[in-house]
Design goal:
By secondary structure, this protein is mostly helical. The protein has one domain: MetI-like fold, CATH 1.10.3720. Helix content is 86%, strand content 0%. It has 12 helices and no strands. It has helices at 8-47, 50-65, 68-83, 87-117, 119-134, 141-148, 152-176, 180-188, 193-204, 206-227, 235-245, 248-289. Helix 4 (87-117) runs antiparallel to helix 5 (119-134) and helix 10 (206-227) runs parallel beside helix 11. It is globular and about 65 Å long.
Length: 290
């Protein structure tokens, strides 16, 4: 009762054709990203003495939360990761998450700004973002594996693509929720479009953008274990090895390390977002009082 319809052959032919045409260029680009961005970032974090890294994390956590107890808890959690022998893999995972988040910010915020300004683009890209957020994370591994092969760079690209949709959505939402009266008041002073964007709309949309960065970082961390299947090193590699060898202790240990890292990054980014929202609210109150 069903017609014989399948997109398998068509998609495979198109991918094979694209690999044949652009394979060498894509591998050259992959090597460039690996040697100029990812490996130097990993080497930088691995060269930092652990005590200095823990001190910087504690200082950053205190600056974000203004609570010494939370900063101490975060430092103790990261110290526990090093105590079980996973410090180097922690640095590899952190470097991958950091680079993928930076790439997602470079891609996501400009697209979010364009979507907030152009209704047609928003209508076109919204279904695309819906599909990207509903696709299983394993699906992203197939095209990057064909185009770039095994290694850290394909894992970086797959993580970036998987993590960028929330940032695009929340950037668009934050810009569209900026009070129109404030924009009219700024226009009455003769600001240019660039000044309107950089001095009015983006600062007011910053809490939403920070929430998008937070969600992007969390999704990048969630992709770490999946990306280990195509050559990403770090904590995800131990989780995958624990699954393959039924080594429950190894997988649980690396999984808890990922959880601790996720909690530290999540709480610090959320604290900065809340502090900025509270500061903006206080500024509004001061303006009304005047």
């Amino acid at each position: 009762m069903f017609p014989s319809l399948s997109m398998t052959e068509y998609v495979n032919k198109q991918l094979v054709s694209a690999v044949q045409r652009y394979g060498q260029s894509l591998h050259a680009f992959s090597d460039l990203i690996l040697t100029t961005v990812l490996l130097p970032m990993e080497q930088f974090f691995e060269a930092i003495p652990p005590i200095l890294f823990l001190f910087l994390v504690g200082l950053l956590a205190w600056h974000a939360t203004r609570k010494i107890s939370l900063a101490v808890c975060y430092v103790v959690g990261l110290y526990a990761i090093g105590a079980v022998g996973l410090w180097d893999k922690l640095m590899e995972t952190f470097a991958l998450v950091l680079v993928s988040t930076v790439f997602a910010i470079i891609i996501g915020i400009p697209i979010g700004i364009l979507m907030a300004r152009h209704r047609l683009l928003r209508r076109v890209l919204t279904p695309v973002l819906d599909v990207m957020q509903t696709l299983p994370s394993f699906v992203y591994l197939i095209p990057v594996l064909m185009f770039f092969g095994l290694g850290k760079v394909p894992a970086l690209f797959a993580t970036t693509i998987y993590a960028v949709p929330p940032l695009i959505r929340l950037t668009t939402l934050g810009l569209r929720q900026v009070d129109f009266d404030i924009m009219e008041a700024a226009q009455s002073f003769g600001v240019t479009r660039w000044q309107m964007l950089t001095r009015v709309t983006l600062p007011l949309a910053r809490p939403s953008i920070m929430a998008g960065i937070n969600q992007t970082t969390m999704m990048a961390l969630a992709m770490v274990v999946v990306a280990s299947m195509i050559g990403a090193r770090g904590l995800g590699e131990d989780v995958l090895a624990g699954i393959q060898t039924l080594n429950v202790g190894l997988g649980l240990q690396a999984g808890l390390a990922i959880v601790i890292l996720a909690i530290v990054i999540d709480r610090i980014t959320q604290a900065y977002g809340k502090s900025r929202r509270s500061a903006q609210a206080q500024n509004k109150v001061d303006v009304r009082d005047e």
